[in-house]
Design brief:
CATH class of chain A: Mainly Beta
Membrane topology (chain B): Multi-pass membrane protein
CATH architecture of chain B: Up-down Bundle
Number of helices of chain B: 4
Shape of chain A: elongated
Structural class of chain B: mainly alpha
Main location (chain B): membrane
Structural class of chain A: mainly beta
Strand order of the largest sheet of chain B: 1-2
Distance between the termini of chain B: 8 Å
Number of strands of chain B: 2
Largest interface: A-B, 18 and 19 residues
Subcellular location (chain B): Cell membrane
Number of helices of chain A: 2
InterPro entries (chain B): Cyt_b561_bac/Ni-Hgenase, Cytochrome_b561_oxidase, Di-haem_cyt_TM
Cofactor (chain B): heme b
Oligomer: heterodimer
Helix content of chain A: 10-25%
Chain lengths: 181, 178
Amino acid sequence: MKKALLLPLAALLAAPAFAQQVDLTKSQLAFTLKQMGVPMSGSFKKFAANVDFNPAQPETGKADISIDTGSIALPTGEASAEARKKEWFNAAQFPQARFVSTSIKALGNNRYQVAGKLTLKGVSRDVSAPFTATAQGKTLTVDGTLPISRLAFKIGEGSWSDTGTVADNVDLKFRLVLVNP
Amino acid sequence: MKPANRYHPLQIALHGLMAVLMVATFAFGKYVHSLPLSPAKFQLISYHKWAGIAVLALVLVRILLRLAKGAPALPASMSAAARLVAHAGHLLLYVLMIAIPLSGWLMSSAYGIPVVMFGLWQLPDLIAANPELAPQLGQLHDALNTLLLLAVLGHVAAALKHHFIDKDGLLSRMSLRG
């Protein structure tokens, strides 16, 4: 009985903070990197996103995205397993990565720039990414690319820090499908 | 020995070059496969792919040369059955020289890791990424290589038999000397 009352209350309290639902089945967090000049892509299968974004008032928008680092998927099972290890994401010690926005600016022509803090493997850095927002019916699809220096976050330590094999730059491609109430 | 009883010098050169390249690529592939994932493994896999694509390119040149220049006649002493085995063996070697690099290329495409020749030229993906199919293509690549190993052993054994038992001078077809 008490629980039944608390749940709607929690929903009510949470609602003003984030006006939109994120359709996680259609959203994705993928990335591309280069090893020996060979493009390779992967993705994070599990993440949670709290987003409030109105293209008419971008500066009031905000985003808080938590990524389950252990859900990383690479082309081979061997590579996926390697990526969870200490030298890479150290998923056992740092199971979550998080991005919290600090500002969103309109760039014009349906383009925006989001800045925020990315915390990955215990390292926090200011990052910034351009994105577009496409409205269709009740959904708003946000597409953007966040360029990341993997070494800035100690992703790939030891012998893996050699950028001659795996390049330092990784492009994190995000697609968030927001459903307006 | 008449010149017509010998392959074209380019064919002979390609035969030797590809023999060395194929033995090296085969051994290299087996070695790389046994390694745990490391930066070195990434590099070695790339080298293996380059070598494999080189084999594919060279065998295509070789087939064109074979079609243009033909092959010298087999010794008259060979029986019809022996000729059939010789032709079938050579055909199998040609098929494998195409099928093995292709299966490796297909596997790369299925894994979603394209082949970038010499780290410079990205080859097109033959098929779309397919995580279920990729390991199966890996098994095919491995099985075809086992078949290649047997075919090459048979090829060498046959050459040695011609040279030391039949003493029919067959090996001079593939030699630049004499």
